[in-house]
Amino acid sequence: MPEYFEARERALLGARYEELYRPLTEAAARGVTVNGLRCTPGDFAAGAGIALQPSPFCKQAFLAPEDFRPGRHPWHHAGVFYAQEPSAASAAPLLGVEPGMKVCDLCAAPGGKSSQLAAALQGKGLLLANEYVAARAEILRQNLERMGVANAIVTNETPARLAETLPGYFDRVLVDAPCSGEGMFRKEPAALAQHSEALVRQCAALAADILDAAAELLAPGGVLVFSTCTFAPEEDEAQVAAFLARHPEFVQQDLSGVGFGRPGEANRAPETPGFSAASCRRIWPADGGEGHFIARLQKRPDAPRAELPRAERPAKKSKGRDNKGKSGGAASAEAWRSFAKEYFPELADRAVETPGELVVLPPDGMPPLGRLHVLRAGLMAGRVQKGRFVPAHALFMAEGARSTNRENLTLSDLRTLAWLRGEEIDAVTAQNGWCAVCVDGFPLGCGKVSGGRIKNHYPKALRMLG
């Protein structure tokens, strides 16, 4: 252990240090979280063919064998589960998300917690998943696409700019803050190598700014869950105490009844009115996870309600024309509807947006996004090329199970792994034209059938090599 870390923790924990941190010498726990948009935990356990144990941290999660390789399992490609360190699945359910809510995951990459929130929404309401680091934001977008999330806005923004654009808009906000990563020492050698007291202070200051933005984003009566994967007092109990001192419009909620972990530590924060260390939750290595801290806060129902800024009027653009004189957007929408009536009739009457040659199905009740950097707002349906509609992989990952033309595979079907390698396969149940390729009813993208064979359109970057 780093000298600073060990000295600090021994001083705070005394004789309990050895008990709580001893498991760091053992192998890291592995876990999977089931995607509730695809199936139930019971159906997953019965059909995945993996030796699983229920997770103590989340009802939708399981502990997986040490030798489990999630990327080799077809159900992983189909977005049926997310490979996630067991204790990491604990925070998102504590938000109490229900269908129809407006939810923000402010530090969302790589997407495990966002996918949990999306599953709780069940396609109703809105999820805004944000990530400040551009490369990680793209990974977030890809993971939500794999999990079949159609009602998400993915942004690459600072929390402050989001708060300026959407003040008081959300019913729920999750802040899984960037932190010094002390809970990842066993799992990630880089966290061990880069650790220092200066890093702890830097992360604590960054998280404080993010929490202030989260407070602005939340509507009166809304709930904020704050979590970290570190043990540092400045980033955990002391962080929450300082937030409550800055924001008297918030009250802390008690997490003592969640059924996992242990209470927070009173000696890690100064006495602050309204703050209770015992109402926080800590997961130590001795509890079976890597290490997590969680607090839940509510904005008082009588807090002042912010107003959304007036939407900026976009600059006028010249409309493109196709060969028949129709505007480019109208032509794209018409091509989509013709395709949808044949393959996705339930989507044919949905409102669409047609930026350029693209066709996007926006989520219901999309807020004004101003000049935010948006990677995706809703479901990418496809694009029009040379007057023809070409469907997107994302469309079939979200809606493939409802396609009128499907090729039905199973885990034991040799064609399943061939498909994931990018090979053409024989068509048995699918007819000529575009088709969804599914494994056990879960979508694996799309192909095009001709002459009894399915041309593979599974993205090259996602294929399973070797």
TrEMBL record:
<feature type="domain" description="SAM-dependent MTase RsmB/NOP-type">
    <location>
        <begin position="1"/>
        <end position="300"/>
    </location>
</feature>
<dbReference type="Pfam" id="PF17125">
    <property type="entry name" value="Methyltr_RsmF_N"/>
</dbReference>
<feature type="compositionally biased region" description="Basic and acidic residues">
    <location>
        <begin position="299"/>
        <end position="325"/>
    </location>
</feature>
<dbReference type="Pfam" id="PF17126">
    <property type="entry name" value="RsmF_methylt_CI"/>
</dbReference>
<keyword id="KW-0694">RNA-binding</keyword>
<feature type="active site" description="Nucleophile">
    <location>
        <position position="229"/>
    </location>
</feature>
<dbReference type="GO" id="GO:0008168">
    <property type="term" value="F:methyltransferase activity"/>
</dbReference>
<dbReference type="InterPro" id="IPR031341">
    <property type="entry name" value="Methyltr_RsmF_N"/>
</dbReference>
<feature type="region of interest" description="Disordered">
    <location>
        <begin position="297"/>
        <end position="331"/>
    </location>
</feature>
<keyword id="KW-0963">Cytoplasm</keyword>
<dbReference type="InterPro" id="IPR023267">
    <property type="entry name" value="RCMT"/>
</dbReference>
<dbReference type="InterPro" id="IPR018314">
    <property type="entry name" value="RsmB/NOL1/NOP2-like_CS"/>
</dbReference>
<dbReference type="Pfam" id="PF01189">
    <property type="entry name" value="Methyltr_RsmB-F"/>
</dbReference>
<keyword id="KW-0489">Methyltransferase</keyword>
<feature type="binding site">
    <location>
        <position position="131"/>
    </location>
    <ligand>
        <name>S-adenosyl-L-methionine</name>
    </ligand>
</feature>
<dbReference type="GO" id="GO:0032259">
    <property type="term" value="P:methylation"/>
</dbReference>
<feature type="binding site">
    <location>
        <position position="176"/>
    </location>
    <ligand>
        <name>S-adenosyl-L-methionine</name>
    </ligand>
</feature>
<feature type="binding site">
    <location>
        <begin position="107"/>
        <end position="113"/>
    </location>
    <ligand>
        <name>S-adenosyl-L-methionine</name>
    </ligand>
</feature>
<dbReference type="InterPro" id="IPR031340">
    <property type="entry name" value="RsmF_methylt_CI"/>
</dbReference>
<keyword id="KW-0808">Transferase</keyword>
<protein>
    <submittedName>
        <fullName>RsmB/NOP family class I SAM-dependent RNA methyltransferase</fullName>
    </submittedName>
</protein>
<dbReference type="Pfam" id="PF13636">
    <property type="entry name" value="Methyltranf_PUA"/>
</dbReference>
<dbReference type="InterPro" id="IPR049560">
    <property type="entry name" value="MeTrfase_RsmB-F_NOP2_cat"/>
</dbReference>
<dbReference type="InterPro" id="IPR027391">
    <property type="entry name" value="Nol1_Nop2_Fmu_2"/>
</dbReference>
<dbReference type="InterPro" id="IPR029063">
    <property type="entry name" value="SAM-dependent_MTases_sf"/>
</dbReference>
<dbReference type="InterPro" id="IPR001678">
    <property type="entry name" value="MeTrfase_RsmB-F_NOP2_dom"/>
</dbReference>
<comment type="similarity">
    <text>Belongs to the class I-like SAM-binding methyltransferase superfamily. RsmB/NOP family.</text>
</comment>
<keyword id="KW-0949">S-adenosyl-L-methionine</keyword>
